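Appendix B. Raw example, untouched.
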Amino acid sequence: MKWVYSLTLFVGAALLFLLELIFAKMLLPTLGGSAAVWVTALLFFQTVLLAGYAYGHATVRRLGARRQAAVHVVLSFVPLLLLPFAIPDGWAPPTQGTPVWWVLLLLTAAVGLPFFVVASTAPLLQSWFAQSGHRCSHDPYFLYRASNLGSLLGLLAYPFLIEPTFTLGEQRIAWAVGYAVLLALMIVCAVLLWRAPATARADVARAAVARAEAMREGIGERESGNDAAERVSRGRKVRWLLLAFVPSSLLLGVTSYLTSDLAPLPLLWVVPLALYLVSFIFVFSPRHARVHGLMVRMLPFFVVPTLVIIALRIGHLLWIAVPIYLIAFFLAAMVCHGQLAQDRPSAGHLTSFYLWIALGGVLGATVNVLLAPALFTSFIEVPLMFVAALFVRPDLRPQPRLGTRKTDRRAALIVGGIFLVCSLAALGSPPSAELLYSAMFLAVSGLVCLSFTDRARRFALCIAAILVVSLFVPLGRIGEQVLAERNFFGTFRVIDDTTGGERLLFHGNTVHGAQSLDPDTRLEPRTYFTPSSPVGGVFQAQAGKTARVGVVGLGVGSLACYASATDYWTFYEIDPDLAEVAQDPAYFTFMSECPGQRDVVLGDGRRSLAQVPDATFDILVLDAFNSDAVPLHLLTREALAEYERTLKPDGLLVFNVTNRYLDIAPALGDLAGDAGMVAFGANDLDVSEAERDAGKAPSRWVVMAREPADLDAVLSGDDEWQVIDPRPGQRVWTDDFSNLLSALDLG
């Protein structure tokens, strides 16, 4: 029985998380590849998980384990009618307002019932086992480790094995087969429960009552690491909720950071979630108590550098930021979940315990997905939750094996000193006096706080005070902030850099456009779009003969000033708030002052292009980004076919593939060869100091055409353009298959 139940929980947990990853990837193209798709999906999945736990808690209490098992087995047959799952026909996202509720409704309609059944299986099987009469039934929490191990295996298998090997259609079919296997295993578990002798179940019940009475009299043994008294106070339940709330919110916050600055690919979804699950596996292991104190003591030494990174806005230095972010998050999860494991109740309160944990997870996700975007213009919930993790950790007294206040001070000086030196060195050029003073202020303040880390609440309040001060000090800013906005598609800021004499648009940590503050040069394209850039050369070579131009991705409208008075340009932009800013002369004037006629179409660029007549554009530019990442659904065989359909016979496709961490050009070469087109790439990375002062930024571009002759004007006299040949035997990206992991370039 023990091994059958463990295997069933293992399979169910793996299916649960594979469903999350598969369907979230299916959703990405509908919303422009936005990183918020995954965190919104996490909110849905945690909400359904709560509903599943509530269902298990209520039905077990009312029906008992045997009758509940019969009900659940019957219910488990219903999702077979909906498999394999798919996005229902006729679902199109809204072009105005937040699409969060649309995503939640779509998830409910498409995978709500299968996910509900699988999600409710974990607490139910543990409850069945607790009433089975097995010799281990008094403490079924060991099954929780099997469940989390299955979750972890499913998560890790997806980006490294499943995604690079199988199409989405094959993945959906395989999941349906896996669900049938799970159903068979659940039937076996139910049969084993039904066959358990009634005398054994009665003995278990009597033993539980006897242990509870013994504990109330103070003569019993400790069970599951906590008081086994049958009554659980309201305050204890609130504590469970808070300890689940904090790491859940941090999970979504850290994931948003990673996927916004790199790419919304499953690998980056997996890493924080895997650490979250590993923390559960560790804390419910028998030896966790030996290291819990060490985790509590280490947490401040990584949270403080993380908060410095956030305050100084140096998150783009990934080789520093990502490891510290992830370690701080893992330690926070270990501390919070470790306290949950130590405070777990007796088996009689198992379903209630999981119900409160699930409620805390839902509330944490709700803060990140629904409340924070409406209340804040930045991801301020992340530092707030790190402070909360410091606040809920227990006080520590010096312990010889784990450290003393003297060693804490030494560790604080070492960690703080190394972090400060690395941060300043990574900035490249000598930091400004303002940034240096800001870093020194944060480092010294943090070191002072780290000297009394054993007093949890005092330390957390001290860190909170420093964060409040940092809100009123221009830490890490490059100029005056004119505007800050946040919505489903991320955060963007408009900054006046008086030193450089320009106004900048930041999406996340990436510049998406700039305009000179000098009236004489204000209509000259800057950053990636200067006349000396590859895209500038394309438009100069086509001067006098381009009439219709399409641009997917508006930015600040820099490209508009390559238009002539007779041209007609159409921009496609998915973010309505950003489109409003780009067209407002109070912020940027390219769209209002450059020559030619133009309009802006709201919505995902690829979906919008589907409405464009054949042979419309002379040039189609793909310049869409989520922070620094190109949306993957714009780089597939089907997408390229849509682009080619809208081009005139001698039309050109131009791709902006500038990225700090991904090399997309080879994949575009494969697509061009597959479609019978030619592709050339230009890496304009050697930008002189004078060019940087004039507003130019390094960039990478790819241009495609049906025939080489169509590119003669672009390629003549410009040796930067090099042919991109398709790679032999390389699998072409499609809507059903992609492997963005193969394009990672962290060198």
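End of appendix B.
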